Amino acid sequence: MIPVIAIDGPSASGKGTVAQRVAEKLNFHYLDSGALYRIVALSAQFQGIGETDENKLNQLTKSLRIEFKEGKILLNKQDVTESIRSEECGILASKIAAVKSVRDVLMNVQHQFKQHPGLVADGRDMGSVVFPESMLKIFLTATPEIRAQRRYNQLINKGISANINDLLQDILERDRRDLTRKESPLKQTPDAHFLDTSALTIDQAVNQVIQWFSDVSN
Ligand code: CDP
After folding, report:
1. For the whole model, what pTM was predicted?
2. Cβ neighbours of residue 157 under 8 Å, at least 6 residues apart?
3. Residue stretches of the chain with pLDDT short of 70
4. Measured from the CB, is residue 89 less than 6 Å from ligand 1?
5. Nearest-atom index, ligand 1, CA of 174
6. 4-209 has CATH 3.40.190.10 classification
7. How distant is the alpha carbon of residue 100 from its chain centre?
8. pLDDT of 53-97, one tens digit each?
9. What's the pLDDT score for residue 71?
10. Which among 33, 140, 186 is the best mutation to test ligand 1's pocket, defined by most ligand atoms within 8 Å of the CB?
């Protein structure tokens, strides 16, 4: 049996950072499922495919060659690690993520990440749809204001200019889309631990996840 830790939560909650550190500590593989939706969005933008053109999006998603290699994300051998992180790409990703046939194609891609000795997967539907068998499920969140501040710091540190009020509006809009869509909406499953990181440091959040994992492993 390959253990999976599913960490789901809303936009900019810090789940990516926490999931990555937990994976490092346990020496597990890491799946950033949001990056897959961002890659589809970036490619659709390049090719001028609209967010509602289900057939073309399906074909496009099937044709993508995605590699996660030494901390870099490659799309058809090109490094897209930075370009998929823009707010514009995130907003388009959240629209394309509502398309069922895109989600179906990416489902198989995501399953391939489940390998020994274990996997930490972060996203919106890791515990509810993609890996319902997860050994540990976590719903990680923070208040919208704190998430906007975290996203602001993240963008500024990367040298990308940002406006905190615009970011807060984007986050609220993205929450609305992720929570209300028909396909795999963001929701806390009854078997998931709730982790509000509003007042926690990254280390505290990571330690809490490791503690829960050791509880379920013993
Ligand atoms: O960086 P942020 O937390 O805003 O988003 P992300 O995790 O990079 O994901 C980008 C978008 O993909 C999200 O707004 C979701 O709508 C979508 N997504 C999804 O539908 N299912 C997932 N498992 C992961 C992301």
Report:
1. 0.94
2. none
3. none
4. no
5. 14
6. no
7. 17
8. 999 999 999 999 999 998 899 999 999 999 998 889 999 999 999
9. 87
10. 33
Dihedral of CA atoms 106, 112, 117, 122 in degrees, nearest 10, equals -10
Mean pLDDT for all residues in the chain? 95
Q: What is the pLDDT of residue 87?
A: 85
Q: Residue 35 C-alpha to ligand 1 middle, in angstroms?
A: 7
Pairing of β 72-75 and β 66-69: antiparallel
Query: Which residues make Cβ contacts (< 8 Å) with residue 115, sequence separation at least 6?
Result: 2, 29
170 lines ligand 1 (CB under 6 A): no
C-beta of 51 in contact with ligand 1 (< 6 A): no
What residue segments make up the domains of the chain, in order of their start? 4-209
Strands (E), 171-211: 193-196
Nearest CA to ligand 1 atom 16: 94
Tokens 């967010």 identify what position? 51
- Per-residue tokens: 8: 């789901």
